[in-house]
Amino acid sequence: xxxxxxxxxxxxxxxxxxxxxxxxxxxxxxxxxxxxxxxxxxxxxxxxxxxxxxxxxxxxxxxxxxxxxxxxxxxxxxxxxxxxxxxxxxxxxxxxxxxxxxxxxxxxxxxxxxxxxxxxxxxxxxxxxxxxxxxxxxxxxxxxxxxxxxxxxxxxxxxxxxxxxxxxxxxxxxxxxxxxxxxxxxxxxxxxxxxxxxxxxxxxxxxxxxxxxxxxxxxxxxxxxxxxxxxxxxxxxxxxxxxxxxxxxxxxxxxxxxxxxxxxxxxxxxxxxxxxxxxxxxxxxxxxxxxxxxxxxxxxxxxxxxxxxxxxxxxxxxxxxxxxxxxxxxxxxxxxxxxxxxxxxxxxxxxxxxxxxxxxxxxxxxxxxxxxxxxxxxxxxxxxxxxxxxxxxxxxxxxxxxxxxxxxxxxxxxxxxxxxxxxxxxxxxxxxxxxxxxxxxxxxxxxxxxxxx
Length: 453
Fold this sequence. Notes:
This protein is mainly α. The chain has 17 helices and no strands.
């Protein structure tokens, strides 16, 4: 084990280094964990309404993920460019990526929202043949889709503050959003304190209000933390800046579309097995996010640390930071994996009372537990490549493995081999393992160390 790393462990795990990583990463992880907690509480609350509501909210939430995925690329690109300018000590240029990103998001997101809103009755039935699920899903999606432009702005703000190493701003905003969302969920889903009982529509309205509140808070904090050089004007946008931002954003947006739509296809394939399997999958995906989002938080910290080091022309430190975040992430998620393996029934029972859904989800949750021993490695290596600006490489690996191997495999398993939910999650584990290997290959080739952005 000691000889596996190309640098001494006392350098990778130096106390000052761990302290610096955690100072940046903990607020991001806290924010990601609060997102996970919100998802789980949301699922648990909606779960009290029945399997149809759980399934409907699950497929429409994934559909919304597909819809906003083109905007997600602005988060990592704004973060990478902001951190690189910070490392170069180009303080007069710190805001340019954020301002450019916000203008582009406004131009894209508002027309996109208007168009998609009118196609909701055609979108939801594509993902489920159950009329009850479709009816609930249309109502839920009709409210949630109105928040798309503000979700996009929040992505850009997140990237900006994380790139500045001010991740506590991100945490503060998410805690405000999620606290509001949970409280409104209780009031609006179940009709408390004189409000009407809106059920799944109440969950959607609570989320929309929380998203709007988050955007307002980000704007407030941007003004509070602005530098003397800050100008909220399109005059900051240059052809070179636009080219750099789009060269990083477009691959991540394309990857986000394919990745999220791929999971939506996975949901649709699962729906072939039945509504109970679909409800179980929604719970399993939320538990997978409970593991993935903290790892993503460490990955976002890795982007800032790697990009800033490369901006300082210090590739050695960039690699050390990657190994440091990798070891911390792997340690944490291995513990979570053990808890899933040892107590699967306990976790499933939190989210649904239906004994059929519980029985279906237990073995796949054990598989998900074993995934935590290798999946964090791929997540950190992926974000290291992104910190170096190798976004096209990340996009290529992700799309190829998901659409070339995983999704065809799941379809063949269900359509021709009478596959089960457990079989689908075996393929999920294999898919994540192969993806981890591709990111390791890209990391070891070290082309990401010489990307110019």
